[in-house]
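Entry 12.
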Amino acid sequence: MRNIIIIIFIIFITVISAGKISAQDRYATCDQCGYCQLSPTPGNWLSCKQCLYPTANSDASSKETLKIDPVTGNPPQSEPGNYYTMIGCINTSLDSFTNPLAAGSVTQKLLNIVFSIAGGIAFLYLLYGSFLVLTSQSDPEKLNQGKRVIYGAIIGVIFAFSAVFIVNMIASNVLKIPGFSQ
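Predicted 3D structure (tokens):
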């Protein structure tokens, strides 16, 4: 009987003196930027991380973008309103695409990109036409070709600016599309 009491006492002391044992951290398989455990870091991971997880460590091996929250059991949430695409980070300032303002905001961002590219191409054509006029050396054919390129570039710039104006006016004033008046 005495041996049983000693054994119970030793077990009781062992259980009470044992410290709190915490579980090992859990990690998601992959994050929203394409970084997966046991895989090399994607080339665009750092720019995607800055878009979706701005507070996370820039070192992928720290696995901050993969660590599962022990309380909720969910992986890290990305920054609300930020979406990383092939053209870069799109910040809609909205929580999700289910928000009624999201469609107009994303469309506005895409139109800004398209019209910026159109304006840049028109400017390059203007430079090309100026180059043709400057190097024509009084050759009437080259001079006329340069003038046509310059006129086309000016018309292209006017077209791009008027398209931006018309689309914004119709979307925000006439149709009153939410999220379009930026």
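Annotation: The chain has a mean pLDDT of 80. The helical segments are 2-17, 45-52, 102-134, 140-174.
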